[in-house]
Design brief:
Length: 83
Amino acid sequence: MGLIRLIIFALVIWMFWRLVKNFKAKLESRNNSDSQSGNKLEQGNMVPCDFCSVHIPEKDAIQHEKMWFCNNSHKEKYLEDNS
Ligand SMILES: [Zn+2]
């Protein structure tokens, strides 16, 4: 009986150790994918200025209806030219 108990005890410890290892691996891969998607978000979408065609990050661009501009003066000039 003593030997069987020892084997079962060893098995339980081994299974527990494997679970912890898997859990850590999952956590690490989740953290990695999080930081990757975070980097993508930081870069953001690039949009072309409708006046000078320069590409700027969406968060820095000025939106007017469905158009994008790199700054306010380009937006005003574009609207003046097309009015
Ligand atoms: Zn521009």
